[in-house]
Amino acid sequence: MSDLEELLRTDLRDAADTLPADLDVDELLDQGHRPRRARTGRRSLAAVAAVVVVSLAGWAGLAHRTTTGVPDPASTSTMVDTVSFFTFYSEPGNVPGLPYATITARATDGVLTLTAQKHKSDSRVQLASVPLNPAVATGTPISPRLSLWVIPGQVDWVTVQTKDPSIGSYSPRHGFISSVGMTVVITDAEREQKSKDWVDGVIWRATDGTLHSSAGTILDTAVLPLSDTSLTVYRDPGLKVVSFFDATEGQGFTSTRDDRPARVVVKTQIARGSFADGWEQFAVGILPAGAHDPRVTTSAKNAEVVTGTLQPSGAVVFVARNRSATEPNGCLVTKVTYTDADGQARSYRP
Fold first, then answer.
1. DSSP labels for 194-252?
2. What is the pTM of this model?
């Protein structure tokens, strides 16, 4: 697509903004609430839901993040033309908002060029120019707020692992450039970080359902079915993170650093609000290598608990979930007992 076509698309988009439309107010409000939920979940994490790594003696903390893709019409499946560029727009309701009105990634002659406009009427400025590598995911720090990643192939979702999981709201936006068969990911933090090098790597799911890591490591995964949805729990030894994909939200993650000794039990926990249905609280745990038969005691009588096995490692994992009309207090999981690799009974309380 030519620069003239791109400018025409922008002019048509701006013109469309001035036309009256029949709006579904409930749907519009719901769309606005989704990014608010993402921010609210992160800001309430410290006060309401501990995200923790546990040993037999205690638990340590971590953070929650959500991802929101912002597709450009040029990448939709209805387009028959080969797409050589993708434009990200800073639109009302996105949390966090991009520091530019538009950011465009263009692939030409094996090079990806990133340009931006502070305002739509401004001239474009170049942010980066990087060679494309069709074999591996490549990251390029742009600024203390922006990070660029290019991933081979097309992805269903992508999440970003930061060096400091408590840095506040951050959101990957991604778009597929079909001319080179690669996905461009722009990650923006809610505020400037200490340096440009604030992202460790990315984890994504390809369109065939497989999970991949920019560290090049094989991910442990398990799909745990709940009564009305499922969670895909995964563990990446390269980025040293444990996390899960929540199919209820379409894209949503909570994660923890997984850098303790192998004998340590890893557990993530989060409480999040739902504007329609009250509160939903999750706890995800992974037993030490060789341990089995977990028996999970929860603080809520009606909590749902399911277990599964991570593959290919064979580690046992559990998920607990509780829904309530009122905001939950304290940990959802109060006690876990299991049999270790030596056949000894073990138990702990958070």
1. SSS--EEEEEEEETTS-EEETT-PPPEEEEEE-SS-EEEEEEETTTTEEEEEETTTSS-
2. 0.70
